[in-house]
Amino acid sequence: MNKINSTHPQHDSSSIKILIVDDEPDIIELLELTLARMGMDVASAQSIDAAKTQLKSQHFQLCLTDMRLPDGEGLDLVKHVNQYYTDLPIAVITAYGSTENAVAALKAGAFDYLSKPVGLKDLRDLVKSALSIPAPEQSLSTQRTLLGNSLPMHQLRATIDKLARSQAAVYINGESGSGKELAARMIHEKSTRHTQPFIAVNCGAIPENLMESEFFGYKKGAFTGADKDHDGFFLMAQGGTLFLDEVADLPLAMQVKLLRVIQEKQVRRVGDTQEKGIDVRIISATHKKLSQCVESGQFRQDLYYRLNVIELGMPALREMREDIPVIAEKIIAKLCREASRPPCQLRNEAIELLMYYDYPGNVRELENILERTLALCSDIEIGRKELQMPEKFKAPIKTETSKIEIPPPPLLVEEGLPLQDFLDKLEKDSIERALEQNRYNRTKAAKVLGITVRSLRYRMERLGLNS
């Protein structure tokens, strides 16, 4: 069965339809009255089968479902919606204190959750957030993106798109320099919080005695030097996203305080007598194995489960060597603009050498290599000899009749082929493989490639693949 992709019209109250799935008439009536007062059209169903019938017959902007239904679990409906109605946000209603069910729903693809008894303010906030999810074409307009056509990169971008449609806490795991903060910013910019602040914090760079005041803020006069009120990171990120980089470096005492703030959604500034409510999505990251830190007693297990609702793994650059040419080209162009110098170009032999190296520092190390190269080379074209590779790197010997043997899975640049032609060949090969694997179903191929069907059609036309 093909997936059903809804469109994103500009919402006005008269066009908004919400589906409520619950087997308790009192709950349905309460939700219907509240949403009707907001000017919305409401339909209801008391079972999963009835909900599926409604979904087939009408177009909805939001679905609210109870976790326990007569003919199954709410999680089953969450999975069904995510499989066949990819643009429909679905939220679950859980019993009070049922954190495990809420986490399971978020991992299954739920947009968010509400706890019983349902608070009317929480309901209104959830509806507002769900209706402000950016359309796919809006998401594509963001300037930040992870470059590359390799399978790991396609899978990563597709996962980021899914995470952007959720409110769940995300833990990003990856080596240093692999782009963890960029991935976090992409999740934020594609989410309902894209108009609100994105606050990035390096947890390892804050002195321990300043952590509480920096995270939670302080009142004027709270301590020596506090000459004015100060909002900490949580209040600065209100309504948006707080990115905790190198979260494993937090001391245990601070972990306890952080856990309480996340659980209670309340923060008290140092020297203040009142707590303030916060609405912040937490994205955390570290190059360490957080699970190993829990086992060794360096990280609290309860905080780990709060932060690691969904884990996103960042691939190392050596795992997607075929992306190095396009990433290097982008970096070279950026560095040339910043240095106000004419655009430079990497020769094929230089690209081959870059693809051979393992990059323990990942993309950040690739950028450092190219920055050193441009600083010491004034030529417009950069060859193998001009590249400033690390001293410990042993370059492979290349003879007149041989090419560099690059470890798998890289692709060699063909001799005499201009860089753009080489990149077009990579793109063409990737599209052809995706089409063959999916029996030339363009919708499925586009999903594998992590692009829209419209983008796939455009690329096929440009590369002469329509025949």
Number of helical regions: 19
Main sheet summary: 5 strands, parallel
Radius of gyration: 25 Å
State the separation between the terminal residues, measured CA to CA.
Answer: 26 Å
Largest sheet: spatial strand order = 2-1-3-6-7
CATH superfamily of the largest domain: P-loop containing nucleotide triphosphate hydrolases
Give the class-level CATH name of the largest domain. Answer: Alpha Beta
Oligomer: single chain
Mean pLDDT: 84
The CATH topology of the largest domain corresponds to Rossmann fold
β-sheet strand percentage: 5-15%
Short description:
The chain is of the alpha/beta class and 467 residues long. The chain has 19 helices and 16 strands.
Topology:
Layout: E1 17-21, H1 25-37, E2 41-45, H2 48-57, E3 62-66, E4 68-69, E5 72-73, H3 74-84, E6 90-94, H4 99-108, E7 112-115, H5 120-131, H6 136-139, H7 151-164, E8 170-173, H8 180-189, E9 198-202, H9 211-216, H10 233-236, E10 241-245, H11 252-264, E11 266-267, E12 276-277, E13 281-286, H12 290-295, H13 301-307, E14 310-313, H14 324-338, E15 345-346, H15 348-356, H16 362-376, E16 381-382, H17 419-437, H18 442-449, H19 453-462
Parallel strand pairs: 1-2, 1-3, 3-6, 6-7, 8-13, 8-14, 9-10, 10-13, 15-16
Antiparallel strand pairs: 4-5, 11-12
Helix pairs in contact: 7-8, 14-16, 17-18, 18-19
